[in-house]
Amino acid sequence: MYLGSINDRVWEVMENDFVILDPANPTDNERANKQCNTMALNTIYNGIDSKVFEQVKDLEKASEVWTRCWHFLASLLKIDHRSILSNGTRNVACWHTITITTSER
C-alpha cells in the first residue's frame, strides 16, 4: 500500500521526522503526527519480511524505519544508498524491491 494513499500527512510524517516537545501534554498537531506515524509503521511492517523487521523493530519513528530499510535494500543490492534517491525524495518504486528481494531469500 502506498503510504500517501492512506493520508497525505502519513507520507509527510514518514518522510520527515517530527518531535513531541512535551510527551505528557502533546499539542493537537503532535497527536496527529503520532497517529500518522503509527499508521505508517503498521503499513511498513506489513510490507516487509521478518529479516528486515529484525533490523528495524527497535525504531519508534516511521522516518527512521524507512531510512533503515533503504540502507538494508542498498546492502542487498550492493549499491550506495544515495543512488536510490531522486531529487532528495526516495523513489517509491524502489520500495517494492525490498519486499521482492527479501522474500526471495
Structure description:
It is a single chain. The chain has a two-stranded antiparallel ribbon with strand order 1-2. Helix 2 crosses helix 3. The protein is mainly alpha-helical and 105 residues long. It has one domain (3-103). Residues 86-105 have low confidence and may be disordered. The protein is elongated and about 45 Å long. 64% of the residues lie in helices and 4% in strands. It has helices spanning 3-6, 8-15, 28-47, 50-56, 62-77, 92-103; strands at 85-86, 89-90.
Gist?
This protein is mainly α and 105 residues long. The protein has helices spanning 3-6, 8-15, 28-47, 50-56, 62-77, 92-103, and strands at residues 85-86, 89-90.
Descriptive key words:
mainly alpha; two-stranded antiparallel ribbon; 6 helices; elongated
| Widest sheet, order of strands | 1-2
Please report the total strand number as a whole number: 2
Regions with pLDDT < 50 over 5+ consecutive residues?
86-105
Distance between the termini: 22 Å
Helix content: 55-70%
Principal-axis shape equals elongated
Q: What profile does the largest beta sheet have?
A: 2 strands, antiparallel
User: Would you tell me the structural class of the helices and strands?
Assistant: mainly alpha
Number of domain units: 1
Percentage of β-strand residues = under 5%
CA radius of gyration is 14 Å
So how many helices? Answer: 6
Query: Please, what is the average pLDDT?
Result: 77
**What order do the helices and strands follow?**
HHHHHEEH
Strand and helix map with partners:
Layout: H1 3-6, H2 8-15, H3 28-47, H4 50-56, H5 62-77, E1 85-86, E2 89-90, H6 92-103
Antiparallel strand pairs: 1-2
Helix pairs in contact: 2-3, 3-5, 5-6
